[in-house]
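#onboarding

Welcome to the new folks! Below is a worked example of what a typical request in this channel looks like: someone posts a single protein sequence, and someone else replies with the predicted structure as tokens. Don't worry about understanding the tokens yet, we'll cover that in week two.

Example request:
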Amino acid sequence: MLQTAAERRNALAGGAIGLAAILLFIGIAAVSLTASGGSDAFAGIISDPYILRVLRFTLLQAVLSTLLSVLLALPVARALARQPNFPGRIWIIRLMAVPMGLPVLIGALGLIGIWGRQGLLNTALLKLGLSEPVSIYGLTGILLAHIFFNLPLACRLMLAGLERLPAEYWLMASNLGMRPRAVFRFIEWPAIRGLIPGISGLIFMLCATSFTLVLTLGGGPAATTIEVAIYQSLRFDFDPGRAVALSLLQIALAGLILGAMSFLPASRDEGLTAGRHSMRFDGRMAMAKLSDGLLLVLATAFLLSPLLSVLVAGLRADLPKLVGEPVFWQAAAMSFGISLSAATLALVVSAALIRARQTISGDKRFTRGSRALYAAMGGASSMVLLVPPVVLATGWFMALRPFGDASVFAPVLVVLINMLMALPFVMRVLEPAYLVHQRRTARLSASLGITGAARLRLVDWPGLRKPLLTALSFAMALSLGDLGAVALFGSDGFVTLPWLVYSRMGSYRTNDADGLALILGVICLLLTIAGASGQMRGHGADDGR
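Example response:
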């Protein structure tokens, strides 16, 4: 053991405090839901046609969104893998990262600009004499939006699996003269098949807990998910009993999904390789080049057109006027303060949990209790998946009602909820980097007697600066563009940039909403690019993924 007794105590105490704080924050929300008549309300779910209809629609749109996203991502990933020399290929792959760093509300506005009633596509269809334009609202719009955000995620994960295949596979396929169908059947499909369950489970979870997209594109009561129904029950109907019942239903649904995902098979190793550069031969035929090229052009147009729509519509707005409004600076200051606070808190909590987990794993006496604590600290970062932000906000809303106006506590609650939202990503970025850093520096630091603040200044900060800044920038972008945690508490006295965009949309001030959306989107993308650049420099190379 390279840690001193004091370092070990401090590490375990920090991890225990972080774990207790997470469990306490989520536990209070859950207890307040139950204490507000949740058990009685939950028992009446099976007899409430409205709640059952919301549950059916939530599952229906999640299933359809998952199927469409995965099925459409498969040929696009194959085309990218088969055409390594396609013009602009690296930019197509980078484009697929944009929706993942784009605020959901901005993506929805871009889709409305293309597929809405006055959008580019419907305008073209009307000029062709078609009397029934495409409707972006309702189930169709929700599916379209989920595909826009989730297809790139599925495609990048599938592409990574295909690119990990050994070069010897492609050489053997070329020597045997295998046709594209045989290549897919015997080489590509076995590699992708192991990835699909995990990809599908992740996308299904994202779609089942979707809030902002459904709130923006839903078609009223007939197209409402559980989280949106919770928001409507409190914000418009002020029916706490129904909100509590829906919140408990959402927790139960998320728990079932996470439980099912834990049984999904892990992906297998694709095989041994001699380390040669992978070169595919099955994409050199003229028909393959034509079909793959057409597919990549269509996929690029589908992803790029909403982004261009946001850019063009935003530039048409009176940006100097918007920036000069006091409410803009009020919203910007609130958003920046919340995002910086949430991201910093996520870094502190993650560092405490990671350090404690590393201390426990390095203990030779790895008892059953230690193993349980180790797992609990790792699982705490994903608790937000079990209790989504809207449910947490509802629980705290119910807990704070007896003390007066709950909106007084809104900034603090939004910071804490956004911190929990960012925690899984921050842990994923920091933990591998911290473990590598420890293996490289722990023994030498111990032999030189460098401990405490001196080690933090001389060893840990220089070695972990890049992953820390990467996690900070991504966490800030995630918090800055979030609408879900703000939706219940947004008011004239508590305005963030996403809430300002949404309120301008709701008051039919579309030009203002477009301009504000452009400003918010640019800020979030710059933060995402800064984080990605830092991560690439930290790994020493840019592989385009």
